[in-house]
Amino acid sequence: WGRGGEGGGGRGWGSQADEGEDSITISVARSEVGRIIGRGGQRIRELEEKSGARIKVHRDDEGGGGGSDEALVEVTGDESARKTAQELIDDIISSQDFRGI
């Protein structure tokens, strides 16, 4: 237990939210993941900056989904930050008027 340090494996990161912070999980089409993350992660960093929330995309590549067309976006922060992040993500997903670029 006393090892600490960076990384620490893939488990448990979600339980390290600060006091007053909770997480919500948003299910999105896997085809939207790239639009949420952006080139080189730029858009997801902007979303985090604007909302004040921490955003992590879980691609359902391994485990349970077995070829699922959905990915999970976990948003961690206080209520206001989570709500803002969810609205920003919804805006990105719903602005799909220009499909064939």
TrEMBL record:
Residues 20-94 form the K Homology domain. Residues 1-23 are annotated as: Disordered. The keyword RNA-binding applies. GO terms for molecular function: RNA binding. Pfam families: KH_1. Keywords: Repeat, RNA-binding. Residues 1-13 have a biased composition (Gly residues). PANTHER family: KH DOMAIN CONTAINING RNA BINDING PROTEIN. This is Far upstream element-binding protein 3. It comes from Geodia barretti.
